[in-house]
Structure formats: structure tokens, C-alpha cells
Design a protein that fits this description.
Elements lengths: L9 E8 L2 H12 L2 E4 L5 E5 L2 E8 L2 H5 L5 E7 L3 H10 L3 E9 L3 E7 L5 E7 L14 E8 L2 H12 L2 E7 L5 E7 L2 E8 L8 E7 L3 H10 L3 E9 L3 E7 L5 E6 L1
Parallel strand pairs: 1-4, 5-8, 9-12, 13-16
Antiparallel strand pairs: 1-5, 2-3, 3-4, 6-7, 7-8, 9-13, 10-11, 11-12, 14-15, 15-16
Helix pairs in contact: 1-5
Length: 252
């Protein structure tokens, strides 16, 4: 029987961008990732443990929907079709209906009731829940939304996430942590006024945060916020790549 412990975990990350070659050069320099060609349209990013995501030119369909360059995370499910049906019943929306990718699995793209997009992924071979993030991994997934309580109910029902610590951030409201497979995977907070829409932001763990930030700005990226200290003796910074995709860096 296939191990289904991957359900509810963030398994893969795709970058859709307007300048593929430039974006690939940017992220390999900032994070230390390597490139693993897959086909003419798609190249994977890999760290020391193996592939963790991919990159492609932003599709015409995505552009027609008004999507800017962005990262999209895929959350695992052992039964994608049942998850899609449940998602719609909970007020979510399907952007890309479920389809099969040979030798990879079954995939769909959806959004929560407040419009934050994410992918769904049923791996062809099943798999195990990821462990603690290492250097080069995506280490944290942060949702900025219009209603923390309502959206938390949506994701908890859909993926079985469990609540973690809730931290009072003053004027910014409560920062609500969530867990999957017993490990903290991210946080949910109220969308700040300067952010136009609800969205996910994904953090990449790097060996040297200051060096990664210096490379970010040197290559045309922008530091939008930080670096700032977070619990555990670590620091983070929220950034934007030269094509306009938001991402964040996480380092000791």
C-alpha cells in the first residue's frame, strides 16, 4: 500500500515568469540551486537533495487571467478528484481542472475562497511527508488573507492541518501557525493594506542570508521587507525577483 503521509504537505513549487533565462540565472545565483532540464518548456530547480521545483514561461492563459510572474506551491493529496470536489464545496475555485501528467501524477490549480492560488498534486508513486527544511529547501509557506479565521477553516477541512502557536503582532493582528505531519509548515496572517490581493508567499532557506540578499539586489531584485529576526534565532526577508515574482529568504 502506498504511503499517504504526504497529504497536506507542500511538495513542489513552480515559477511562472516572463523571462525564463534571466529568472533561472537569478535564482541559481541567490539560492545555490542547480538547473535540471526536463523539456523545451520546463526546467527544474534542484538543491543538494534533488529537484524541488520548476520554472516555465508564464502561460497565455495565466496572463489572460491577469496573473503576474509568480511562484505556485503544490499541496499533496492522495485523492485529487475528491479533494477538488471538497474544495468546491468549501467555497474554493478551480482555475485549472485536474489532469494527468505521465509518470508524475495528477495535478490541478485552485484558489481558496479569498482568491489565494495554490496547486494540488497526487503523486503517481505516492510518497512520504517531507522532513524539516534544509538549506536549499522551501522552508515556510505564508498566507496573507482577508479573513484568517474563515480561511483557516477552509484549509483545515481540506488538508487536515493542525493549529500551532498564535502570535499577537499588534497592529498587524494575529500570526497563526499551522502544522502538517507534525511539523510547522507556515503561517496565516491578515493581508496588509498595501498588498492588492490575498496570496501565498514561499520562503527559501539559504546558508548566508546577507550574501543572498546582496546577490538579490545586485541582480536586479528588490528587498521589500527585512531582514528581520524571527523566533528561533533566525532571520527572514521578503523580496521580489527582477520579473516581479514575490519570494522570501530564510537564514540563520
Amino acid at each position: 500500500m502506498s504511503d499517504k503521509s504526504f497529504g497536506g504537505n507542500f511538495l513542489w513549487y513552480d515559477l511562472g515568469t516572463t523571462d525564463l533565462e534571466a529568472a533561472q540565472a537569478f535564482y541559481t545565483a541567490v539560492t545555490g540551486w542547480n538547473l535540471v532540464p526536463h523539456n523545451d518548456q520546463y526546467t527544474m530547480f534542484a538543491n543538494a537533495q534533488g529537484p524541488i521545483g520548476g520554472s516555465m514561461v508564464l502561460s497565455d492563459d495565466a496572463k489572460a487571467m491577469g496573473a503576474p510572474p509568480h511562484w505556485l506551491a503544490y499541496i499533496g493529496t492522495p485523492d485529487l478528484d475528491a479533494t477538488v470536489e471538497k474544495l468546491q464545496g468549501l467555497g474554493g475555485k478551480v482555475y485549472v481542472p485536474a489532469f494527468d501528467m505521465p509518470n508524475v501524477g495528477r495535478i490541478a490549480v485552485a484558489a481558496d475562497p479569498f482568491g489565494a492560488a495554490f496547486g494540488l498534486f497526487q503523486p503517481a508513486e505516492g510518497g512520504q511527508a517531507p522532513g524539516e527544511a534544509k538549506v536549499g529547501d522551501f522552508s515556510w509557506n505564508e498566507l496573507m488573507t482577508d479573513n484568517v479565521d474563515t480561511v483557516w477553516g477552509f484549509y483545515q477541512n481540506l488538508f487536515g492541518w493542525t493549529p500551532g502557536e498564535a502570535m499577537d503582532m499588534g497592529e498587524m493582528g494575529v500570526y497563526f501557525l499551522f502544522e502538517a505531519s507534525g511539523i510547522s509548515r507556515g503561517g496565516i496572517m491578515k493581508r496588509p493594506p498595501e498588498m492588492p490581493v490575498s496570496a501565498w508567499l514561499h520562503y527559501i532557506r539559504v546558508e548566508d542570508l546577507d550574501a543572498a540578499l546582496a546577490t538579490t539586489t545586485k541582480l536586479g531584485g528588490t528587498i521589500m521587507n527585512g531582514p528581520m529576526a524571527v523566533p528561533g534565532g533566525e532571520r527572514v526577508a521578503q523580496c521580489m525577483d527582477p520579473q516581479g515574482a514575490a519570494f522570501a529568504l530564510h537564514g540563520v
